[in-house]
Amino acid sequence: MPVQIGLEELLSALFSRVDEVTLENQNQQSKFNIMFRALYKKGVFTDEDILESVRDENKILLSLGLIKEMPDEKVLQAAANNIMLWIKGDVNEIKNSVEKFQQKLKEAEAQQNKPKIDVAPAAVLNELDRLGGRNNNHGGLII
Question: What is the pTM of this model?
Answer without folding.
Answer: 0.58
